[in-house]
Design goal:
Elements: H1 2-5, E1 11-13, H2 22-30, E2 35-38, H3 44-57, E3 62-67, H4 76-91, H5 112-121, E4 125-129, H6 135-143, E5 147-152, H7 155-163, E6 168-172, E7 178-179, H8 194-204, E8 209-212, H9 218-226, E9 231-234, H10 236-239, H11 248-255, E10 262-265, E11 273-276, H12 279-287, H13 297-311, H14 334-348
Parallel strand pairs: 1-9, 2-3, 3-4, 4-5, 5-6, 6-8, 8-9
Antiparallel strand pairs: 7-11, 10-11
Helix pairs in contact: 2-3, 3-5, 4-13, 9-14
Bound molecules: flavin mononucleotide.
């Protein structure tokens, strides 16, 4: 599969909406890995600009990633209750919560403009997170010669991916930073780790598997390959690269003692995601089972609270997504990081 893409290293830089940039992805693809951009948080116009910037930086294959979440159900009563609960935290920064919450991201499942853009620009790989689009969308992308990947966190999701005609599965373990790709956030979650999940999917599906979650160095990549994965997808490892869009506070938190602790929480966005432990994730103890509005409606409130806090110099309400391997993160240019990972991988494989 990687040969078909002209990718020489089994290293995928994870798509990270808001953090990965065209410059980061271009550096990774130029260094022999597969660079990715996440366009789940923007519209077709924003995605076009990112794809054009990436094409200007590399002639090699890259991956464009989309969110395929189920339609958010607006629930004014639940949203008002959530805003009322958050109000004291806003008040600490002399701010008020927004009066109303918006569905800030459109799902790719219902975004015809984004589909048209992908069919026109034809990135080598399109990867899907949170679920699968309608059959016709998958068929159209494949007919355009685009390779399709989708995230699975369980064998059941992987089977649905295989049945849909998708080309490869990203096995995302519970260790992973950022949002879990679970199809249905309300369903019970077994929280499988990267090792067990990768092995399950390699043995129980016929598709190539890309392992993701907690992989930070060449030894980790070698371990993923030993489990039968064709490549490893690393997100957290690339956040501290100068080419990422992470702000100074995020970088500081990631490379400081705080990186020793990550937490899974749905309070920030409405979907479970792993972040560095901070003031936002600590609200989990106070929420006492309170349910945030649906993703991405809750994220509108989360972003507003972060903005209010940041304006007063408090950075502890940022969505500082990171995986369990965060303490092993290294701040170095992406090309240097890929070369280091390749060297470590060669050493680990003897
Ligand atoms: C900051 C951040 C943002 C992320 N955003 C996305 C995204 O937009 N789309 C996606 O499919 N995965 C996203 N992920 C998850 C990654 O694809 C991948 O599963 C994860 O980074 C692997 O775990 P690791 O961070 O321990 O390497 C994100 C991860 C991080 C850390």
């Amino acid at each position: 599969m990687l040969d078909r893409l002209g990718v020489t290293l089994p290293i995928v830089q994870a798509p990270m909406a808001g953090v990965s940039t065209p410059a980061l992805a271009a550096e990774v693809s130029n260094a022999g890995g597969l660079g990715s951009i996440g366009v789940g948080a923007t519209d077709a116009g924003g995605a076009r600009a990112m794809i054009e910037a990436l094409r200007a930086g590399t002639g090699r294959a890259f991956n464009v990633n989309l969110f395929v979440h189920g339609a958010a159900k607006a629930d004014p009563v639940r949203e008002a209750a959530w805003l009322a609960w958050l109000a004291p935290f806003f008040a600490e920064f002399g701010a008020e919560p927004p009066r109303q919450l918006r569905t800030i991201y459109r799902s790719f499942a219902e975004d015809a403009e984004m589909l048209a853009l992908l069919l026109e620009t034809r990135p080598a790989v399109v990867s899907l997170h949170f679920g699968l689009p309608p059959e016709g969308v998958i068929r159209a992308l494949k007919s355009a010669g685009i390779m399709l990947w989708a995230t699975a966190t369980s064998l059941d999701e992987a089977r649905r991916i295989e049945a849909s005609g998708i080309d490869a599965i990203v096995a995302q373990g519970i260790e992973a930073g950022g949002h879990r790709g679970v199809f249905d956030p309300a369903a019970p979650d077994d929280g499988l780790g990267t090792m067990a999940l990768t092995r399950l999917l390699v043995r129980r599906t016929r598709l190539p598997v890309i392992a993701a979650g907690g992989i930070m160095d060449g030894a980790g990549i070698a371990a993923a390959l030993d489990l039968g994965a064709v490549a490893a997808q690393l997100g957290t490892a690339f956040i501290a690269c100068p080419e990422s869009a992470a702000d100074a506070a995020y970088r500081e938190a990631l490379t400081g003692p705080g990186a020793d602790h990550t937490r899974l929480t749905a309070l920030i966005s409405g979907r479970p995601a792993r972040a560095l432990a901070n003031r936002f994730t600590a609200l989990e103890a106070k929420a006492q089972g309170r349910l945030p509005p649906d993703y991405p409606i809750a994220y509108d409130a989360g972003k507003a609270l972060h903005a209010a806090a940041k304006a007063k110099g408090e950075h502890g309400f940022g969505a500082q997504w990171a995986g369990q391997g965060a303490p092993l993160s290294r701040a170095m240019p992406a090309a240097e990081l890929v070369a280091t990972l390749a060297r470590e991988l060669a050493d680990a494989r003897g």
